[in-house]
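Saturday, quiet lab. Running sequence design on the structure tokens for the scaffold JK sent over.
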């Protein structure tokens, strides 16, 4: 796991809990989420609630246990709560985000996020018969990531919490050759 030293509290923190914060004028600093939130509170002279949510385990539709970590960020006029899995110490697999106004109740926010996660985990979009993976029905939900392993700038899709590269997805689509499709892109905090 990559550790980064927080500029303010000097603690070594996991890279997924670090915010690269600042501007071109003032320079950039790496802050842990706790120090980032404190600074947002101080700068905006607002009382902010800080909660460190512990990781939780949830089962997906295939009965596989998945561990979710949380990141709470106060953004001034809004608050963001993210849930994500880790792969090799970095964010990977399922990721979720919920946004609300700055004064939102954080436990209520957490409850709404978990509900959204539960709904998403109950769905399966891909079926794998051991030979090949295919689209289970006619709708696919997922996330667009960057395929760092590819020389070209192509996406890697994360569907059902697993990575599907652009070529694999193309092969899956060939089941529907001649059919039409509707492709909708949504913000990370929206429900899909
Ligand atoms: Zn810190």
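Result came back. Writing it out in full:
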């Amino acid at each position: 796991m990559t550790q980064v030293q927080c500029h303010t509290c000097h603690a070594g923190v996991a890279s997924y809990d670090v915010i690269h914060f600042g501007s071109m004028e003032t320079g950039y600093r790496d802050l842990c989420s706790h120090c980032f939130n404190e600074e947002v509170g101080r700068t905006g002279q607002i009382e902010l609630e800080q909660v460190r949510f512990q990781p939780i385990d949830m089962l997906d539709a295939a009965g596989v246990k998945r561990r979710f970590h949380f990141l709470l960020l106060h953004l001034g006029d809004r608050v963001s709560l993210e849930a994500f899995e880790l792969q090799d110490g970095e964010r990977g697999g399922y990721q979720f985000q919920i946004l609300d106004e700055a004064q939102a109740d954080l436990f209520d926010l957490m409850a709404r996020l978990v509900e959204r996660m539960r709904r998403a985990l109950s769905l399966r979009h891909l079926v794998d018969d051991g030979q090949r993976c295919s689209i289970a029905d006619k709708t696919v939900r997922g996330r667009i990531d960057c395929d760092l392993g590819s020389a070209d700038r192509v996406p890697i899709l994360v569907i059902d919490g697993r990575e599907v590269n652009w070529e694999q997805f193309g092969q899956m689509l060939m089941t529907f050759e001649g059919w039409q499709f509707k492709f909708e892109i949504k913000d990370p905090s929206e429900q899909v």
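Notes for JK: The chain has two domains: 3-121, 126-176. Helices lie at 33-44, 106-121, 166-173. Ask whether to fix the surface positions before the next round.
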